[in-house]
Amino acid sequence: MSVSAKHQEEVRKLERVRGEIIAQREAIGAPYTGKDVTEQVLDDLRQQKKKRLEIAEREPYFGRLDFREDGHAAAMPLYIGKTGVGEEESQKPLVIDWRAPISSLFYSFTGGDAAVSYDSPDGIVNGRVFLKRNLLVRDGELQRVVDSYEEGQDNAALTTDEFLLHRLGESKDNKLKDIVSTIQQEQDAIIRTEKNKAVFIQGVAGSGKTTVALHRLAYLLYRYKDRVRAERMMILAPSRMFLDYISGVLPELGVGDIRQTTFEEWAVELLEGTVVQESHAAALERWFERKTTREEREGAPGRIKGSVAYAQKLRESLAGFEESLIPDEEFSPYPGIKLSAVQIRAWFREEPAEEPIMKRRERLLNRLKRWMEIQLGRGRWGDKTIKAAATAKWKSYSNKVPSLTAAEFYRLRFPGDAAYKPSASKRKPTVVPREDLPVLAFLHLRLYGTPEPAYDHIVIDEAQDYSPLQLSVLANRQRLPSLTVLGDLQQGIHDYAGIRSWKELADLFPESDTAYYELDRSYRSTTEIIEFANRILAGMEGEAKPAVPVFRSGEPVECVPLAKGPAALAAETARTIRAWSGEPGLSTIAVLCRTADGSKRLHAELKKLGTEASLLQADQQAYSGGVTIVPAYLSKGLEFDAVLIADADELSYGPEDAKLLYVACTRALHRLKLLFQGEPSPLIGENSGR
Ligand SMILES: Nc1ncnc2c1ncn2[C@@H]1O[C@H](COP(=O)(O)OP(=O)(O)OP(=O)(O)O)[C@@H](O)[C@H]1O
After folding, report:
1. Residue nearest to atom 3 of ligand 1 (CA)
2. Which of 133, 217, 299, 463 has most Cβ atoms within 10 angstroms of its Cβ?
3. Which residues does ATP bind (predicted)?
4. What is the pTM of this model?
5. pLDDT tens string 640-658
């Protein structure tokens, strides 16, 4: 079939499918506003469907696969889209959801006439593929038709990756996007991993880890409809700004209501207002605004307190506390009526051990109260004076059974470790440093538990910055392990708190409950940028894993020496911003500085020159795109069309800063330039053009 005939065929098909989608959408009226509860529930479902149809109307599908199942006479064209659509009358599928079992063929098929198979709920289905076609539909218009496999054609000439490259070449705005139309085979395998696993993903910068984790949530909600609920899922990311950056993906995949937060916010909430965390900026300042030594990082409180050994110390301390909870004295609410310490301890032990300690304490004290009432009998209990005196005795006894908040417990039992002062007033929360939050969360769960239901699934992004203690606190909030834990050890710039090997985290689970994946291909940057960043990696200690580029060539990376002084830096920065701003493909531009202080100074200098740029700071809620000046350590997880590294000199980036410079360079999609005053950083030495 000729190219234009194919196009015509697809235009007709698109018209038919969109006609059906529009008709179905229009048939769903305005939201129900009445009081009938059943009707409200039904309408909720209708309105959700309407939202999905609205997305489908713009882009009903992105792929077509002609598949002949074994035993069937003809191949069936299957159209694959973000949401499944069935014909209203016949209920025949018009569009198949990308998460359906059969759609996995679309992602895993890479050509050839060999038999293929996919896992369906009824078992393995075998068959053959006759056509794999990518379709680009934007706002209801068919824009591109690209075949990556057609039976009987010279498929070597068919462009397998043309569609992907087209997508990667697009410029980015300030939000991460979904990738349903171009999910790669190795990514699809992760997305479709069974629910009850702790899935660890080690992936190079730009390999799609964050994106894949979000698609996995959408997959789990579809595949395990009856068992998982969006309200019982949670995404943990390093900052509010990062969460804002990824916030568009799930709604675009038709998924809502998933809690997205940072570990620290989650912990503070768990601790029920008893503590607040010190500012994020202050915490970062400690590690990034001045040079730190390896000894400082190794011996950092976050690493020690986050270790498995420390968790054990906390457990032992809790056990000791529990053991000594009941005072060594009898309880006697009235002369002649008494209960020995031995008896009270025995009662305490009867409480279920898996219940939090303070809950058991409360139940024990209530039991004592009931016992007291019964022993005194109706006559004496009815006597106001006797009742008041007995109750006072009970209160006084209760006061001797300690009740502590997590923050009080930690300060009392680990006075040398707790790095905060108690708040001056009981009603005011205690301000605690970030590294103490995991400890307090751990203690709180053992002491008080939480009324919140367990989580069905938890996603942890940038997990190389997590400690084993943090992960174990989270895993304790699940009945069965079901987590997606992703990160990149090579980007572990917070190594004063995080791990050095995934084993540290994976060891928390039985091996049969874990799955480990590595992603080596980088989709974000051009080949030139990836190769440049790989050379920085090579300078890193330990075994470096270079990223493999998807072949997408761009401009060479530039390293430019500058004369000394802030004026020369500002002038060159302004010139670069001007030049890049004039290029159509470059809509987000970042200037990265080693420190927040340096970023502020450059921002002020640029202002003097009349160059507009926004300054990105820790504790910021959102990243708005355009031209931004960013401290390198805050750029982690984000990406920009073009990146200018303003201070790639030997003082800013010494050999121990390889991870930070690697993070900085890998933020760039299409363009990367590094400036240096004085000697270039040894990390780019040979690349610097000198
Ligand atoms: N299969 C794909 N098709 C199209 N684009 C993709 C694909 N996989 C990843 N990308 C793109 O690559 C970029 C990097 O993705 P993402 O931010 O999820 O990677 P990451 O591994 O989390 O990166 P980092 O560790 O550097 O933060 C994004 O722009 C994403 O849209």
Report:
1. 182
2. 463
3. 203-210
4. 0.91
5. 999 999 999 999 998 888 8
